[in-house]
Design brief:
By secondary structure, the chain is mainly alpha-helical. 45% of the residues lie in helices and 8% in strands.
């Protein structure tokens, strides 16, 4: 299990609304904040045109959770949530800011744009930005893709139909998604992605790569759901039982956010 040793212990914590804005996903904001209008959602249609962000050269910051640290128990315990976000995720934010220091044009990009343009980053910082920028995007989305049990809704009729067409049924999709997560050797992520034609597919990536990283990760479509299968995401509670973690994870999936992204 990889251990990010350079952890930052201080961070700026934006509001929940700022968190949703910071990852550029108006669709998720529309699914979780009633103040977001339909016109914002309309700006995020296929392919996932992540909302333009009014970002200057300010440093990236660690997002606030949209729920309490213990809100996902018993699926994910509060201690894991705390360590995962304030240590691991915060290390990615800190090290991303270090990598971008002295590159004002890159600092002005949103984290979505950073991921979309990974393959064009200067060679001197490409690996650091890929690892830490991917870690920041992936984790910011991971928090938004979860919700307390009973509050995340269910797959929409449109998404259910797409899942059934691709995998046979929603339940069969869950089996195949979990298999992608279990089958990822070492550390990485499992993803559900939407293609330009509205079909959906499952893929997995190593480390902190994600399907937005065109030129590095190709053929995966646009991510609309992702699950962290690094050991630090589950080891305190599940130890080496990654399949148990993936099976339990469905109890806290925020389908409202996934539906909005698919739409």
């Amino acid at each position: 299990m990889h251990d990010e040793s350079q952890h930052s212990t201080t961070h700026d914590v934006p509001s929940r609304r700022d968190f949703l804005s910071s990852v550029g996903l108006g669709a998720i904001a529309a699914a979780t904040a009633t103040s977001v209008t339909h016109s914002v959602l309309a700006d995020t249609l296929t392919p996932l045109h992540l909302l333009p962000q009014e970002k200057t050269t300010m440093a990236f910051t660690l997002p606030e959770l949209p729920y309490a640290e213990n809100a996902l128990e018993p699926t994910i315990d509060a201690l894991t949530m705390n360590i995962h976000r304030t240590k691991h995720h915060n290390a990615y934010v800190t090290n991303l800011n270090k990598a971008l220091d002295g590159h004002p044009t890159l600092q002005a990009m949103s984290i979505d744009e950073i991921c979309l343009n990974i393959s064009t980053m200067p060679d001197s910082i490409k690996t650091a930005v890929r690892n830490n920028g991917g870690g920041h995007w992936n984790h910011s989305m991971y928090w938004a893709w979860m919700a307390p049990k009973g509050s995340g809704g269910a797959p929409s009729p449109a998404l259910s139909a797409a899942l059934a067409k691709a995998f046979g049924s929603v339940e069969e999709f869950k089996v195949k998604f979990a298999a992608a997560g279990v089958g990822r050797f070492g550390s990485g992520w499992a993803w559900l992605c939407k293609n330009a034609d509205g079909t959906v597919a499952i893929c997995s990536t190593a480390n902190q790569d994600n399907p937005l990283m065109k030129g590095i990760v190709d053929g995966c479509g646009t991510p609309i759901l992702g699950c962290d299968v690094w050991e630090h995401a589950y080891y305190l509670h599940y130890q080496n039982r990654r399949p148990d973690y993936l099976a339990a994870w469905w109890d806290v999936v925020n389908w409202n956010a996934v539906n909005a992204l698919y739409a």
